[in-house]
Backbone:
């Protein structure tokens, strides 16, 4: 990972896994130390759930990006993401984690 690349590995882990709270908290703290990262004390995901955000602006493949990861204030679990147009500040994409659970089989609803 370089200063000019998005933190892909961290993003993939926090978006695509259910992890123990201690690991989620460690990744949250790591994300906060990324070059250009800033703390957003009052962030809100797409479902309106309040949390703490980590926002950064960077470049990838010569494109400028501005992302915000949102974490639960108590558990520090990832609860959503917002993507901004870096030139206008307008939200261009957002997500919310509504529920995560383990199941016995792929496709099974918890």
Residues:
């Amino acid at each position: 990972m370089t200063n000019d690349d998005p933190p892909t590995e961290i993003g993939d882990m926090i978006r695509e896994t259910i992890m123990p709270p201690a690991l989620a908290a460690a990744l949250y703290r790591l994300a906060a130390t990324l070059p250009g990262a800033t703390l957003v004390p009052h962030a809100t995901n797409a479902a309106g759930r309040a949390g703490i955000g980590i926002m950064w602006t960077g470049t990838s493949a010569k494109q400028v990006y501005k992302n915000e990861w949102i974490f639960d204030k108590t558990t520090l679990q990832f609860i959503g993401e917002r993507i901004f147009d870096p030139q206008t500040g307008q939200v261009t994409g957002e997500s919310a984690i509504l529920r995560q659970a383990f199941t016995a089989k792929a496709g099974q609803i918890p």
